Amino acid sequence: MTGKLEDTPQSVDLGKAFEESGVRDVLRELDETMVGLEPVKQRIRETAALLLVDQARREMGLATETPTLHMSFTGNPGTGKTTVALKMADLLHRLGYVRKGHLVTVTRDDLVGQYIGHTAPKTKEVLKKAMGGVLFIDEAYYLYRPDNERDYGQEAIEILLQVMENNRDDLVVILAGYAERMDRFFKSNPGFRSRIAHHIEFPDYSDEELLQISEIMLGEQNYAFDAAARQAMSEYIAARRGQPHFANARSIRNALDRARLRQANRLFDTANGALDAKALSTISEADIRASRVFRGGLDVDRASATPESDEQVQGA
After folding, report:
1. What average pLDDT does the chain have?
2. How many angstroms separate the Cα of 174 from the Cα of each of 80, 133, 269, 312?
């Protein structure tokens, strides 16, 4: 009678467990690499604390079931949902809640077939790839299309619900999308709501945060603004935010790609003789102010200038 009781720890050092798990490294990386998102970071910290305590309780024989870890990430495009899902997969792996810690990102097209008998194999193949890690379903509300009698999304939903319930010790599912559409989706599919334990809302970035993000993005490619260009970028962000199809950090990345294109053409047109590294790496005011935004136009690719297509391109 003594063996099992003697093996059960009588106390636990949560601080030591926190250090040994590597969770501190994940949280620090989240703080260092992602601008803003303080409410999201706080929820991640709280979730990590919950899981560490649950782990300690299991070691002491106080808990027997794996907690429900399926999540919902809601927010506008470009607010970091996919990146945070990747960090979450790493955190869950370090804590031993998933075997592999990989992230599989999918949309409706990866799960739903176009004819009878096509959906089940597609969905099951995706689930097979995701086992031991995290499955991130972007724009999850597109799985449910009640207005189309010949739609096979419901079949994918039923398979997902079954696996989410029966394999919750080997797979974490994160559903993501716009808040209002996700709310309607949950109301239409209560089975999903009952299986989602953690709802995390991703706020839009502020103008100052987007400017900081733009500088980080440029720095990652060994570019930088000059002083006038930085001011122009600040004005661009304020103007662009008020236009349709704005997608936070995604829109900023697209704007910088166009600025780099303008810079390259400017250098070809005006350069005389050799160019040094600074000239090749500096974004000037002209490269920013050439945007259509400063003339009242829309600074997006014309091919994606519809609500639905813009979501599909930038909805993460």
Report:
1. 86
2. 14, 11, 49, 18
